[in-house]
Write a structure and sequence with these properties.
Elements: H1 16-23, H2 27-34, H3 45-58, H4 64-70, E1 76-81, H5 95-108, E2 111-115, H6 121-124, E3 138-142, H7 148-157, E4 161-164, E5 174-176, H8 180-194, E6 198-204, H9 209-225, E7 228-234, H10 237-240, H11 243-251, E8 256-260, H12 266-277, E9 287-291, E10 307-310, H13 313-328, E11 341-343
Parallel strand pairs: 1-2, 1-3, 3-4, 4-5, 6-7, 6-8, 8-9, 9-10
Antiparallel strand pairs: 10-11
Helix pairs in contact: 1-2, 1-3, 5-13, 8-9, 11-12
Length: 355
């Protein structure tokens, strides 16, 4: 047996070679003992005790990077946003999603890597822009619009990727989403129960899946209840949805207006402002519904809670993490759509008698 010579003090993490010298054994033996001897090799109990005693004396802690590399995995999950600025402010609608992602990743024993430098849509669409997410075992993506071609390359390469929110552009891309169709239909049915017969939905003029789902739920509920329903798509809500526009729709017999929630809140912000500018009040003069939650500056003390639904964003983030880990471990990880909670709010009521 080698002499148990004192190990010189060194800076940094103690290595297995130092444990081996102190214990008087080979580094291979140290690796077997500290790794739990999964190979089942016979090691004398006294030898195991010397190795463990030496490790404690030196304060040895296994290098997590080395262990992960040995397993060809990093136990790292990436999070990549396609919004103009990575959402970290508490008031941002993506914040609770990130909270859910973090909490579920912690429970599952994974760390997170936030990819913050390429959140500009143009840059993300550049060739190879998403390659660096491969530093993580798999990656979560979120954003209203995505660079489909770059994501397609990742997916075709076999890289585990999950989008938070429904995506149809890439059949191979896994996603975890909320049930906006059912939630939007419930809001319309609630307005119908109050007696509204002519409704308008204001949405942004693009084909983002969350918007499409909300419109689908709106149209289905309108048809099912035998109502009149109009969908207004606008690329510039602030310019198109004005006080004059609201008055004109009221003159046509519209008694309830519904807007979608988006990253910017543009549709609801324009509708909310136009109603106020027209000198009208909800629910006395008309009813308002919001398919989602209002932006931070349009909620809180002194402001009405809009009738609509609430997206359980933290659960949505957690569901996406579970789905990504299922892909990584090659398990069946189908996640059901996350149900949205109806919010009665304060902006809906019976149509005015004069309408």
């Amino acid at each position: 047996m080698a002499d148990n010579q004192p190990v010189r003090a060194r800076r940094g993490r103690p290595r297995q070679a130092e444990v081996a010298r102190l214990a008087g054994v080979s580094q291979t033996t140290v690796s077997l003992v500290l790794g739990g001897n999964k190979q089942g090799i016979a090691i004398h109990e006294d030898t195991q005790r010397r190795v463990l005693r030496a490790a404690r004396e030196l304060g040895y802690v296994p290098d997590p990077a080395a262990r992960r590399l040995a397993a060809a995995r990093n136990n790292l999950l990436g999070v990549y946003s396609f919004t103009a600025t990575f959402p970290t402010a508490v008031e941002h609608s993506y914040y609770p999603i990130l909270v859910g992602v973090e909490q579920e990743a912690t429970v599952q024993g994974y760390d997170l890597v936030l990819f913050t430098g390429s959140s500009s849509g143009d840059r993300a669409a550049a060739p190879g822009a998403l390659d660096r997410v491969r530093l993580a075992d798999g990656c979560l993506f979120l954003g209203r619009h995505i660079p489909a071609e770059e994501l397609r390359k990742l997916v075709e390469y076999g890289y585990p990727a999950v989008h938070i929110g429904r995506r149809d552009e890439l059949a191979e891309l896994a996603w975890a989403g909320a049930d906006y169709v059912a939630a939007s239909a419930e809001v319309v049915r609630h307005l119908a129960e109050f007696g509204h017969r002519h409704l308008v939905l204001v949405r942004e003029d693009d084909d983002a899946p969350p918007s499409t789902d909300r419109e689908q739920g709106f149209r289905a509920a309108v048809a099912g209840a035998g109502l009149r329903g109009t969908v207004v798509r606008t690329a510039t809500p602030a310019a198109d949805i004005t006080a004059a526009w609201v008055r004109a729709r009221r003159a046509e017999g519209v008694t309830a207006f519904v807007a979608e929630e988006t990253d910017t809140g543009a549709a609801w912000r324009a509708l909310h402002g136009a109603v106020a500018a027209a000198g009208l009040r909800a629910p006395q003069d008309l009813s308002l519904g919001l398919l989602g939650s209002p932006p931070a500056d349009l909620c809180g003390d002194g402001l009405q809670r809009p009738t609509g639904f609430t997206v359980p964003r933290a659960e949505l983030g957690a569901a996406a993490v579970r789905l990504l880990i299922a892909l990584l471990t090659e398990r069946d990880g189908a996640e059901p759509l996350v149900a949205c909670a109806f919010r009665p709010g304060e902006t809906a009521g019976p149509p005015p008698a004069t309408s």
